[in-house]
Amino acid sequence: MALIVQKYGGTSVGTIERIHLVADRVAHTQREGNQVVVVLSAMSGETDRLVKLAHEVTTVPDEREMDMLLSTGERITIALLSMELRGRGINARSFTGRQVGIITDSAHTKARIARVTADRIKEALKQGVIPVVAGFQGINEQSDVTTLGRGGSDLSAVALAAALKADRCVIFTDVDGVYTADPNIVPAAKRIGKIAYEEMLEMASLGAKVLQSRSVEFAAKFNVPIEVNSSFKEGKGTLVTKEDRDMEAAAIAGVTGDRNQAKITVVGVPDKPGIAARIFGSVAEAHINVDMIIQNMSQAALTDLSFTVPRADLKKAVPIIQAVAKDIEAKSVSVTEAIAKVSLIGVGMRSHSGVAAKMFDVLSREGINIMMISTSEIKISCVIDEKYLELAMRSLHSAFDLDQAQA
Ligand code: ADP
Ligand code: ASP
Ligand code: MG
Predict the structure, then answer these.
(1) Which end of the chain is less congested by CB atoms within 10 angstroms, N or C?
(2) Ligand with minimal distance to 10 CA
């Protein structure tokens, strides 16, 4: 008897008809002699709707209250699926993050999991009950509700699979696996059969939202293989696992796009030691992740410092930066939201040279200006004008020979 954690994303539980289909699959998995633990997201669009409501109330909503609000979405789906299963005579029970002991730190809206007790899940399984767990949520040491960052139900599933030493962790979604690029943007994208944690982590961090990046980080740390598959049809998916020899050694594994960043520029910064530490120290204190940083050439002992932050944190970041800018006597602060980041990812880059040069060439041929660049051993990212993102992704996908062979 295998223990299988199945996570269903927002689209997969987006309507009552879809919840029926999820119940069919859960029932079938149990009938085949397995123990099943189900982790659910909120109905598609629900979390966005709640975020929007909060912003209609106030510009920068209190983060503890935000988590109280956002965690409601998943309570709806777990209760509905459990009712549906029980209606069919299948013994299922819904549980919140608190009830299953998902204990996190207190970084509201992007809390990190500290430990998972899973006692009630183990107890339920022993009694033959199917636990249906609310994804995306936990509690901190004070028992306040926390959430795990957007897309965080993936992390809930992986963390439970690790805590329960599950045999499989399957992420059911609206695509049948991880592709060389978002198939909804690049129609020629190919499904990847098997991908290493390291590549998947870069792809997820750089915009492939099919898996939340922290779920991949967690899976790699605890060596939990993740299967990504379609909740709508049967077929092969993608296995995310340790790097092995039969993984393709192509230079590029995939292309990603990310619209979730915004650029802040502090203009006329005194060019002296300690200034960058001041600026980024105050941003870090507010739990805002800075991604790319660029410092322009200094003229007359003044410099411009640009950096990107998640768009969702922009309203919180700007007043903080304005205060520091005033303190350090910088000239002004400007903000651009209409940027996007296009990236190429591949462990093969370690042994292939010229990838960056070719990327810049492809973008320049399309007349796309590069605002910022960042590289690591296995990725290259460029910040460009948001309106060219899809064009950039398709051109790069094709230039790096990732397009599906025409049938
Ligand atoms: P869920 O609600 O099931 O968690 P998400 O919307 O979070 O689903 O993730 C699935 C979506 O991820 C797909 O519909 C697809 O548009 C997008 N996506 C982005 N990059 C990729 C990629 N490289 N491979 C597959 N899907 C991708
Ligand atoms: N409902 C949450 C979100 O939309 C978590 C998830 O779907 O994984 O971000
Ligand atoms: Mg998701």
Answers:
(1) C
(2) 1
155: CA distance to ligand 3 center in Å?
Answer: 10
pLDDT score for 405: 56
Ligand 2 centroid–CA 272 distance in Å is 43
- Helix (H/G/I), strand (E/B), else coil: 372: strand
How far does residue 70's CA lie from ligand 2's centre (Å)?
9
Looking at all shown ligands, the one closest to residue 11's CA atom is 1
Architecture field, domain 3-174: 3-Layer(aba) Sandwich (3.40)
What's the pLDDT tens digit per position in 43-73?
A: 999 999 999 999 999 988 999 999 999 999 9
Distance CA 406, CA 396 (A): 17
Among 370, 361, 363, residue whose Cα is nearest residue 394: 363
CA distance 201 to 211: 9
| Helix (H/G/I), strand (E/B), else coil: 335 | strand
Q: pLDDT value at position 248?
A: 61
Could you identify the residue written with the tokens 């309507």? 15
Reference 119, options 142, 105, 137, 103; nearest CA is: 103
Instruction: Supply the residue whose CA is at minimum distance from atom 27 of ligand 1.
Output: 182
CA distance 205 to 227: 18
Atom of ligand 1 nearest to the CA of 171: 3
Using CA atoms, how far apart are residues 55 and 315, in angstroms rounded to an integer? 11
Residue 222 and residue 258: Cα distance in Å, rounded? 27
Within the chain, which residues score under 50 in pLDDT? 406-407
| Residue position matching structure tokens 């690029």 | 181
